[in-house]
Amino acid sequence: MQTRVGGVTVSLPDATRSDRVYALLQNLDLENLAFATVQGVGNTLNIEEMNEDELRRLVLVNLARLTVAGEWNGLLTAASGGGGQAGTLIPYSSSAYSADYMELLHTSAPWGVTNNAASNLGTDLLLWPFVASNSADLSSMSIYVSYSPGGTCTVQVGIYSDDDGVPKTLLGYGTFDCSSSGMKTQTSFSSTITLESGTQYWYSYLSTSTNVPNLERTDEGGLPTLGAGPDTGLYLAGRGTSVDANVQTQDATITLSGISITDIGRMCLGVKY
Questions:
Q1: Which of 104, 196, 256, 271 sits 20 to 30 Å CA-CA off 134?
Q2: What is the rounded (10 degree) CA torsion for 144, 146, 150, 154?
Q3: How much of the chain is helix, strand and coil, in % rounded to 5?
Q4: pTM of the model
């Protein structure tokens, strides 16, 4: 039997008609098919003989997706990306715990620490890695302005994909009005930002106004390094903790040859899904 899915014809020997896998995925292109969608289709399938054909179809579609995407999320490891699989984090939930806690990207393992400071982060595009705890779309981002110079004062906070340990492609960003101090929350983004649990990404900071606020951040002295760093990292703490893209725009793609490994503490950022 032959069926078209994701724009290609696939077949299974002596297979019965697909009432679930192909029926739910037939209008999606392999290039845009997310692992979370494949998971959702397979979650309700019982592991029994009567579902053998649908289970084979599920594996076949995911293998085709991975081949087109050029990566192996959800096959060799559970939703691992270019940055690899980290330890399991407590997943965000709006209702599972005693409060609607944020996912705190600046403090979460394996890159974060809990000692805070506050400073003007300058005007360059800065980036820090993090590992997502959920497979879902972001619903909000929150930052904390410790001091505002007043007037027009805005920053952009973005999320970039990871490509073998370095930031790569912009997934979306939010713009924050920092004309006053306190916590600022943004629920509107330039595009939908979809993350996968256990996958490494990068969050970014960019000042988009002449007036630059002081934002809460972690102290770079206690941070894990990114692996690469300047010679001063041999005898000084906090070296090689951030990436400076050396641009003043939220670029769609990070140019690897243009980045510097710097020593700026992680901007405090809380997210919800």
A1: 256
A2: -30
A3: 15, 30, 50
A4: 0.68
CA distance 263 to 3: 54
Look at the block and give the residue holding tokens 């990207």: 105
N-terminal to C-terminal alpha carbon distance within the chain: 40
- Helix, strand or coil, per DSSP, at residue 147: strand
DSSP assignment of 207-249, as one string?
A: E-SSS--EEEEE-GGGSPP-S---GGGGTSTT-S-EEE---SS
* Rounded CA separation 161/169 (Å): 5
Strand partners, 261: 243
pLDDT digits (tens, 9 = 90+) for 189-233: 999 999 999 999 999 999 999 999 999 999 887 788 888 877 877
CB 25 within 8 A of CB 5: yes
Q: Under a CB-based contact definition with an 8 Å cutoff, are residues 209 and 153 in contact?
A: yes
Q: What 3-state DSSP class applies to 258?
A: helix
- 8 Å CB contact between 3 and 22: yes
What number of other Cβ atoms are within 10 A of residue 121's Cβ? 20
Residue with tokens 């002081």: 214
- At residue 80 the predicted structure's pLDDT band, cuts being 50, 70 and 90, is very low
Task: Give, in order, the Cα–Cα distances in Å from 175 to each of 153, 169, 273.
Answer: 10, 18, 18
